[in-house]
Specification:
The protein has 129 residues and is mostly beta strands. It has strands at residues 3-7, 10-13, 18-25, 36-42, 49-55, 61-63, 71-75, 81-86, 95-102, 118-119, 123-128. It starts with a strand and ends with a strand.
């Protein structure tokens, strides 16, 4: 079994930074057993959007065009925690942010939510003008 828990959300002014973390829990849990992990977000009235993902097969990372150059997805050295560093935040980044993981092999669209089979419950990020 896998349980994902996000943390690090909060309120920040435009131009500021926040760092999100996703911790995995379970017997012998490790990101070594995952094929992909990613961050998704959903704002009121909008569809869930893939923000960033990492493919553990070769370390490739993927970013939505809206966050390229501002957000960075990474894993800690022990491969126990997933991180999302968010810089130069904009009000449009305001959303509930979700951590997700997939054990389903190669994804044709790493930022597509349909491929992920484990999800956290989200952490709120609010960016004010």
């Amino acid at each position: 079994q896998v349980q994902l828990v996000e943390s690090g959300g909060g309120s920040v002014q435009a131009g500021g930074s926040l760092g999100l973390s996703c911790a995995g829990f379970g017997y012998t849990y490790s990101m070594y057993y995952m094929d992909y992990m990613g961050w998704f977000r959903q704002a009121p009235g909008k569809e869930r959007e893939g923000v960033a993902a990492i493919y553990f097969g070769d370390g490739s990372t993927y970013y939505a065009d809206s966050v390229k150059g501002r957000f960075t997805i990474s894993q800690d050295n022990a491969k126990k925690t997933l991180h999302l560093q968010m810089n130069s935040l904009k009000p449009e980044d305001t959303a509930m942010y979700y951590c997700a993981a997939s054990t389903r092999g190669l994804h044709t669209r790493p930022l597509g939510s349909e491929w992920y089979n484990y999800w956290g419950q989200g952490t709120q990020v609010t960016v004010s003008s």
